[in-house]
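Postdoc handover notes: sequence design on the structure in folder B. Input tokens:
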């Protein structure tokens, strides 16, 4: 199968590209700027917010049977026009491309945080929606567009992923910061009481979920997450243990606005319909981050 993947140079996109290519799929990719990505056989540079994006993609690449739409502006500034241009108009353009290519399946990468703050536990796909940022509002809009794009001959899926982790984790994310400080044997600082619990899904599991959607000819909405939630304090201690660091954990006198929030995503629907269950634990994700950082800075002994 030929699969067209947007956001191919991002953390999630790179993992999806590598995984699908390893499964024998022919992957073509899109990003605003070209960077070599393992597993991508063809690449086009284009901004999804540009009016000629669909024409440029169509001229550069042969039609694909499936599209995985992972590209997005991650801005949290409500005044940033890229949120609407890239995330909203961009998704409309992808649907236009899906129509032009008559694709069989369209998979949209969304975020569990479209719900806002968790009100019911565990969090299920029918949780009430009240996004707290313009970015998450745009992702919810994208989910609705993708649902409307489903036809008798085209299956559409939205995957609400939790916090992506593992290889490619941006340096300002809490896991990357904790790993970097642990590798340097520096104090890991935690605001508040460290009780906020996040769900860190390894990007390799996100990629596997995409494969399952393609294989199962899936439709609908699914949460894709790790098996367990982890508090900030537990994350810090696990990072120290995994890299065999002598670092300490210190609580700083600053309140955490999300103190006590628990992102306990239910996997019942994804497991029942797709056969999805996470294959990577938090320790695997931490080791992947440590491996990347050690190549840039210092060596560590994982034994």
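Designed sequence:
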């Amino acid at each position: 199968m030929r699969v067209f993947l947007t956001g191919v140079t991002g953390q999630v996109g790179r993992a999806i590209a590598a995984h699908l290519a390893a499964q024998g799929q022919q992957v073509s990719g899109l990003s605003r700027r070209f960077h070599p990505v393992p597993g991508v056989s063809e690449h086009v540079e284009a901004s999804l917010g540009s009016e000629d994006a669909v024409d440029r993609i169509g001229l550069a690449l042969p039609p694909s049977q499936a599209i995985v739409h992972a590209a997005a502006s991650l801005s949290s500034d409500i005044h940033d026009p890229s949120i609407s241009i890239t995330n909203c108009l961009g998704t409309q353009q992808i649907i236009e491309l899906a129509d032009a290519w008559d694709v069989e399946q369209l998979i949209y990468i969304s975020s569990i945080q479209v719900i806002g703050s968790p009100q019911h536990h565990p969090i299920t796909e029918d949780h009430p929606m009240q996004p707290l940022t313009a970015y998450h509002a745009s992702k919810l809009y994208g989910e609705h567009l993708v649902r409307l794009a489903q036809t008798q001959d085209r299956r559409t899926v939205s995957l609400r992923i939790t916090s992506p982790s593992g290889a490619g984790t941006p340096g300002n994310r809490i896991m990357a910061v904790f790993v970097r400080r642990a590798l340097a044997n520096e104090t890991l600082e935690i605001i508040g009481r460290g009780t906020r619990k996040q769900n860190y899904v390894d990007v390799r599991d996100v990629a596997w979920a995409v494969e399952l959607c393609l294989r199962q000819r899936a439709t609908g909405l699914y949460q894709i997450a790790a098996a367990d939630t982890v508090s900030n304090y537990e994350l810090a201690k696990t990072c120290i243990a995994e890299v065999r660091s002598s670092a300490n954990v210190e609580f700083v006198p600053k309140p955490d606005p999300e103190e006590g929030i628990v992102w306990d995503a239910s996997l019942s629907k994804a497991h029942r319909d797709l056969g999805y269950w996470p294959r990577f634990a938090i320790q695997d994700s931490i080791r992947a981050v440590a491996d990347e950082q050690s190549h840039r800075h210092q060596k560590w002994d994982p034994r």
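Context for whoever picks this up: The domain at 165-198+228-263+279-296 is CATH 3.90.25.10 (UDP-galactose 4-epimerase; domain 1). Don't rerun without checking with the PI first.
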